[in-house]
Amino acid sequence: xxxxxxxxxxxxxxxxxxxxxxxxxxxxxxxxxxxxxxxxxxxxxxxxxxxxxxxxxxxxxxxxxxxxxxxxxxxxxxxxxxxxxxxxxxxxxxxxxxxxxxxxxxxxxxxxxxxxxxxxxxxxxxxxxxxxxxxxxxxxxxxxxxxxxxxxxxxxxxxxxxxxxxxxxxxxxxxxxxxxxxxxxxxxxxxx
Length: 192
Fold this sequence. Notes:
By secondary structure, the protein is α/β, with parallel strands linked by helices. The protein has a single domain (11-183), classed as Rossmann fold (3-Layer(aba) Sandwich), CATH 3.40.50.300. 33% of the residues lie in helices and 22% in strands. The chain has 6 helices and 6 strands, in the order αβαβββααβαβα. The protein has helices spanning 3-10, 29-36, 101-113, 115-118, 139-145, 169-191, and strands spanning 15-23, 52-58, 62-69, 88-94, 124-129, 156-160. Strands 2-3-1-4-5-6 form a 6-stranded mixed β-sheet, sandwiched between helices. The radius of gyration is 16 Å and the shape is globular. The chain starts with a helix and ends with a helix. Keywords: Cell membrane, Cell projection, Cilium biogenesis/degradation, Cytoplasm, Cytoskeleton, GTP-binding, Lipoprotein, Magnesium, Membrane, Metal-binding, Myristate, Nucleotide-binding. It holds the Pfam family Arf. This is ADP-ribosylation factor-like protein 6. Belongs to the small GTPase superfamily. Arf family. Mg(2+) binds at residues 30, 49.
């Protein structure tokens, strides 16, 4: 941990992290981000994101700025304009939408092969959302269909989630926070 990070911790400040939240439309991205905010800051009504929106939430040691990107087909080309700024990715999959799993895989492959992402060791958190829906695919099955085992050069983790209740979200955010903190420590060690 560098001197600046120690000072930030000592002063009680939180390191800011830019996170891209991606996934097809109606996968639950906005609902997940809303659930991650404190209960007094949560919206009562969730509407589909048009273009993108910026949301913030905090954990014990990080302050997250989340770019909630629309998953509608006509807006997906906007995603790449934010890749350079992203320090982590949350990729949300509707585990009950078996028909569009192929489309989700295509979008994931496009993301992973983009020049601004391909050579970066950026952590990717997958939320297999809507696990409460009857006949939803398990997170293991979602992982297989997306061929996540082929991602060798980036840390990744998949969690089964129910965004409406908040189930599985904390596990994922804890993993993401650990990855970001570990990456920061590794970067400090390289500079030392």
